[in-house]
Amino acid sequence: MKENENKELENLIDKAMKNMPLETPSFDFTSRVMAQTAIAPQKVISAYKPILPKSFWLVLSIIIIGLICYAYFSGTPQEEISYGVDIKQIYNSKLNNITSDLNFSKTTMYAAVALLLAMLAQIPIIRNYFQGK
Length: 133
Prior knowledge:
Blueprint (H helix, E strand, L loop, with lengths): L1 H18 L9 H11 L14 H20 L13 H4 L3 H7 L5 H26 L2
């Protein structure tokens, strides 16, 4: 039943289309469209601006490196932070005893540092790659 309705509708549309003249665009259609696109205002795309500028990261890294160097090169003995509380008694547990016995070789430490540096080096590379897309 639907097939008959569809065929009748198709025949009706075909008859209506035969009686209609073929429409063509005017002679200067292309030039008018191109003129309108040239006049149309273009969208302004703002450039990416990071929340924290590079100067902030530079100053922060200099401060951190300075603090590390100061702590390393200062020859003063370490002072105890807590005066009345013995922290070792509070947190004395089997987990602390296990972790205090862990010793890593120099090769393992160098590998861990190399892995960390490789991961940190990839961050700006990947960020620049995705910003370019």
